[in-house]
Structures
1.
Amino acid sequence: MTEIVASNPEVREFKSYPPKPRKLTGSSIAILVFLTMCAAFVAIPLYVIIVTSLKDMAQIRFGDIFSLPEVWTLEPWRVAWDEVCSGVTCEGVKIGFFNSIMILIPSLILSIGLSAVTGYALALWNVKWAGTFLFILFTAAFVPFQIIMIPLIIMSGIIKVYGTVWGVAIVHAVLAMPLLTLIFRNYYKDIPSEIMNAAIMDSGSFWKIFGEIILPMSGNIMIVVLILQITSIWNDFLIGLTFGGIGTKPMTVILANSVITSRGEVTYNVDMAAALLTAIPPLLIYFVLGKFFVQGITAGAIKG
């Protein structure tokens, strides 16, 4: 099918739809090869982990890590969930899974709630010393956690939250504040000033404007920070190890303990199944909310 396109009254050209596919060039082939290598770098180890978790130990001992299971079994997954040992306890990674859920929910509420309000105030209200505060936040975003770890331990001990779920959640919220505040501030900066002026003229208070106007407009950016925070909090190891108590260790700590705990034969299939059980939740979040993440980014999440 063709369409006549007139660029001016005297010149007409025929344009075909759909456009013809471009011919492969040297540069495009090089890009495809590079992308294929990058994909294989991630996909091949993931394939090995998956097939190993579905094999029995008799086949694993032969050392052919790329072969498909001769006997498909989900027994390693059951053992990893219910029976794998972490230190002296053998209750599976399910204990760490529920601990991670208990850590994740308050961490999300604190970090996203505080950052959204702070970014809203810095972007749309005349806050004294806002520029200085933003500079301090920007600087704090690049401070390694290990530098401030001991002061945070002392402070969490003073307020009696060290070794609790709330202690881990508060630390996650504190460490996320700089980056998330900057993201929210840049997003809210694009809201037209006419909307804020009209809201203030209608006797809108700080919290009323935030709850009735700003939050309903924040769907895209909320998805972005939600994905960032879920991935960061769920995959965290050091904060959970340092600030979590004996009964509040997250799933990553339970996984590490189960791998280094030796009770005779090393069951590689169980270790691989436990690793996959730990990785599944953030992967599901990406599959479900991935397209919304892209929409949030393109809507101005990191514009500045």
2.
Amino acid sequence: MAYKSLTLEKEGPVAIVTLNRPDAGNSFDFRMMVEFDDVMRVVGEDNDVKAVIITGNGKYFSTGIDLSIFTDAEGLVAKEGGGEEVSPLPDDQTYGKGTIVGGVVRIRNMAKPVIAAINGPVIGASCSMVLACDMRIASDQARFAMVFVKRGIVPDTGGSFTLPRIVGFPKACEMILTGDTIDAAEADRIGLVNRIVPHDELMNAARELAGKIAKNPPLAVQMAKADLYNAMVEMDFIEQLKQEEVSQAKLLNTEDFMEAATAFLEKREPHFKGK
């Protein structure tokens, strides 16, 4: 697919997806939804990609859904060049495919970590999207707003699921029921982001984090991510121990484990193959 609303770059094992509708606050119209869903599929299926960064071009990370789609849906699709060029694959059974929801499902199901590099305000559905990412690095210019109730609707794109699991139930209630905006410092204080960095250092910080992860054995990263998310919903400690044992047994039989052990004993850098 030829992307018009976002860009995809690869820097070695790291893929960088940039939302690219700066004149519209990087808001999601129909085309951008389909393109975002597709690019998450593409990077998820690319075995050369070991980590993914999502960011925005310009002042905003994203202002959420482009509300004009509710007033001129057919005209907008036609104007943007809709049709087969931006149609989801027919045999793809991903929940919400072709929308921002599909992209979020792919982020959570992806076997590699996804880092949100939040360059500016992130509002509504796009705030839910960054909550679905595995890690969040914020510019000191970032702002966060679960603004849904102020628009007469409820959180979507998984926001009501992810937010209380990240910041706790009381703070999630406050953010969702007031719809208020919080700044980067407050987001850091409540644990919504991993860290804040000066605006000009944002992408370097995201690249550094992605690069550290990309150096690790990809199968171990994949299973560790899966086990972490399983633990968020698993209520029984013993069942989670059993899940860890299953993952560990698989990894102990991999070439990468033997390479890690051998490299440690030989005091050299390991070379992982994802096998």
3.
Amino acid sequence: MRVIYLIHLINHCKTIPAINQVETHVFHQQKKLRKLECQIGTKHESWSPLACGKNGIWQNPTLIKIAKNHRKNVSQIALRFLLQQGIIVIPKSTKPEHMKENLAVLDFDLEVEEMQTIEELEIGRSLFGWW
């Protein structure tokens, strides 16, 4: 959801949305939208926190390097990046081993420098052609 659409929504409704689920991942971080949501008290939930595997997320050298430093996998780094910013993440998986991995993101923190490096992966557009 673009910022302008959220502004239009809050200007024309009686109840401010409690949660806004929108495409958010390391490549499309939604910073302007999250800033507005914070101001109005709306929680941000990531739709497709792992980018549906698009844009070479699992082969990304930046994410691989950070993953190795923490003895984690790329998915865990991508999820932790979002969680550390207060973003709600509910990654989809049908495989028990992936579900366990997705839950194992609370036992480490990314350093400030690592967060900044991941922020540089922003491409400023949807990977799904919606916006």
4.
Amino acid sequence: MAKVLIGCETSGIVRDAFLALGHDAWSCDILPPDTPTNRHIQDDVRTVMRADWDLMAVMHPPCTRLCNSGVRWLSQAPPGRTLEDMWAELDEGAKLFSAVWNVQHIPCVAVENPVMHKHAKARIENYQPPAQTVQPWQFGDDANGPDNERKRTCFWLRNLPPLCPTGSLDGTTARDTVAKASPGANRWKVRSKFFPGMAKAMAEQWSVHAFQHLAEAA
């Protein structure tokens, strides 16, 4: 079995998509998994990724301070916080993104995040524009299903091709659940949710290309 690391994931959605194809897939996060599993490593992804992940890594580093939607907090901090807090968290977020994007010993790497603001881009080592931008609804068939959402998702890819949409939805009925998540302690989790249709496409399409890449490199 090929080893696949899903970094910064607690839901197990992407991990389970790779497991369904027979891969030795593991999720990793500093937080525990959302549901009990023996396939989750609770640790810093920068430590875990040092192991021999011989096929690929799919990384979801936290986007709170990197994403365009939160850039306003860099000029006016939210209640109870300071601008120093906001800029320090931006620096830490950029360091984590840089670490997972620049890991060299894993053959194929995908990093997922929303659209970034200019301050994040300037802080990321070897930054380059994302290889593609997709929407969850492009991978869904059921208008009432979990994939029929609007959430602009960017992928930075190394030795992997852009995803091909697999769904039949056209976006006209897509919901804005993620963007309109209510304020509260769990808002970050709602906004970071991932989608089963996209995860299935990632596992199916990227597995094939990752194996091809390894065969060509041998």
